[in-house]
Amino acid sequence: MVSERVLQLLVLACIASSLPARADRPGKPENLSCQAVQETEYISTTISCKWDPVGHQTTNVPTSYTLTVAVLFSTTYNVSTQENHAMVHFVSSFPTHMMLEIWVEAHNKLGRIESEHLKEDAGWFVKTNPPSDVKLISEKSFPTSLLINWTHPIPKEYLKLTYQIRFCPNGSQSWTYVPLVDTAMDIQSFRLQNLQPDTVYVTQVCCKNSRNGSGYWSNWSTNATVRTSEDRPGKPDLWRIIAEGDGINERRVQFICKDPVLANGRITGFNIRIQDQKVPSPVNRSESGSFTILQQIHLADKKSVKVYVTADNSVGKSVEALLVIPEKSHELAPVGELKVWPQGGRLWLEWKPPNSTALSEYVVEWVSGDQTDWQRENRNTRRTAIKGNLEKFVCYNVSVYPMYSGRTGKPASTAVFLEQGAPLEAPAVRLNGKPGHDEAELVWKELPQRRRRGFITNYTIFYTSATKKQKITVPADTTSYTLKSLTGNTKYDVWIIASTINGSTASFNHSFTTLKYAPGEMEGIVVGVSLGFLFIVVVTMLLCVYKKDAIKVNFWPRIPDPGESTIGNWSPDYPLKAERPKENGLCGVSVLDVDVCDGKCVFEEDKASLPLKKDKYLSEEHSSGIGGSSCMSSPRQSVSDSDEGGDMADTTASTVQYSSVVASNGYKGQTPNSQPQQAIFSRSESTQPLLDSEENPDTLLQDGSRQSHRFPRRPCSTHTAGSDDGTNPGDIMEQQGALESLDFCPLEEDCEQPTADGQSAAPVSNYMLQLGGYRPQ
Description:
Elements: H1 2-18, E1 30-39, E2 42-43, E3 46-52, E4 64-71, E5 76-81, E6 85-89, E7 99-108, E8 111-114, E9 118-121, E10 126-127, E11 132-139, E12 142-151, E13 161-169, E14 176-177, E15 189-192, E16 200-209, E17 224-227, E18 237-244, E19 250-258, E20 269-274, E21 281-284, E22 292-300, E23 305-312, E24 321-325, E25 336-343, E26 346-352, E27 361-368, E28 371-378, E29 383-385, E30 395-404, E31 407-408, E32 412-417, E33 430-431, E34 440-443, H2 449-452, E35 458-464, E36 469-475, E37 480-483, E38 491-500, E39 503-506, E40 510-513, H3 521-546, H4 548-555, H5 604-608, H6 610-621, H7 648-653, E41 658-663, E42 679-684, H8 692-695, H9 697-710, H10 729-741
Parallel strand pairs: 1-10
Antiparallel strand pairs: 1-2, 1-3, 3-6, 4-5, 4-7, 7-8, 7-9, 11-12, 12-15, 13-14, 13-16, 16-17, 18-19, 19-22, 20-21, 20-23, 23-24, 25-26, 26-29, 27-28, 27-30, 30-31, 30-32, 33-34, 34-37, 35-36, 35-38, 38-39, 38-40, 41-42
């Protein structure tokens, strides 16, 4: 049992290995079609057929095809091929008006199969040549139609044909087809209608078997071209340009006109009539631009005007075009929500219509600089594209005007670019005036529209010094800016960048240097210094006026004149006996022991000053003298201890001490006493100012020394009460030597020359001429 099953499997394996892999029966051929073309005046004796093979084919099991064309009740033709097409050649001629049955059979090692059979009249498979001698005829009496004629490509005895006609304006690729119902008959001419006058048209014709659903369309004939005749022109496209007038409350209106859309010929001119004019004014058509300027008027804001325009060509005049310019304050409602955007290389517009039943149409206007163009849209339009030729990087001001039977409404406008780019240049920046100390005003001009190439989004100002760089962004409508917080006496470089959404462009650098001082700062300094100096001068003058006495005392002290001194009147005319002061009565007084000068002769000048000396001694003995000193007063600083550089006012206010040497027995004569006299040095607390000679003892010593040399001591004869004898020269020399040995001899004070008899002679003045100034009390 098992062995039989194994044996069967082995046999099947051997059979499978002997057969080619993936071999199938052939599929049924599909889409069989056959065609017999025309040659010269007759149909060709060859018929071509093609089909679509079905099924998988391999090189080991190829599929072959056999095409069979059977002429009923006549000959059958067979053609074998391995391709999907084949040709059958008839023996003598094409079997016109006979039935044909055509099929194809596919076969290989695994089987065979036939396609669907085509059983039709022989004319069903014919494709004729296109009509010949196609002609277009234009007639003046029919400016909107053309007559087309052609010739049959094949005689009617062989085949009846039907035709198809198409036409279009010259240069257009949009063909217009004549309905087949109008050309189904066996015809050789046809009239094209509803054409545009004075327009060149191109026409083509083709044909096929007239039997319904049979045959193949021929190729299109060659082009037949002709221009339609002229006709009266259509209504001209009238528009206006309004600008501000030269006067107040006045408008300047310029009427312009395009050729009619249906010109129907060559426009030679226009006729314009304003308001109530009876005779229109002719205007020649402009050949230079896209429109013709008709007339310009000045119209008050509170007035309206109606304008009528007709167009002329070689046939006649057009109907009138009407345009009403309303009062400025009575413009009708505008459209709403106007939107303009670029798309696909065109500018598209969309808006909402005004709420008015009188609306007749819209006028879409676009203006760039001095270039104006417009187009008209019907009242049902809500969205459209501008049909004119627009340029990139150019700003267009697009407006939509609703029209109310020739009366213009209020426009809705917006600016737009078809495409934006970086500006061609940036504005040149410069300074407005001169820079200040810490600020500078920059100004620039707006770029011309043609140089912007887009909407300026902002300006960026860059300014740099040697140490730092800064930038400031300002809005696009700004034309000036003041840089602040600058450093004085510093050089700055500044430039500006203009930006759009698609790029930026920088200007050239402009350099300036800030001032070292702010305007008015130097003047302020000068004025301040001048005012300060003036204040000092005024204060000084006021001090001089109100403090003149103190200034006089401090800067111009009064020097006492010894000749005017009254000190000589204080002492008596007779000499006083100097009593030795008591020991306890000299408290606070410095005592200096000296020897009495025993010279017998003094200078002549010293003699003259003895009375003054006597008065001085008298004043010192009496405590009521110049200084009013008292023996009980406290000791004071001597004149030699006083500060020479001290304040003048302090000197006058402080107590000044005078010193003198008082002999115990006084001056009783020029003859010295046998007993040595003891001199006493005392100091006074007088407030009388010191003389310069007393303040500067060194100077006094020098001056005294000079006077000693200038006035040398000479021996003089002294007289006593009872004798005229002169003193002994030896004694005189001895006294002179003793006198010079005293410390106070340079001052020539307190020296008396005793006489030979020991009696006191007339006191000799020893008051020297004061060298310094005298300071008042």
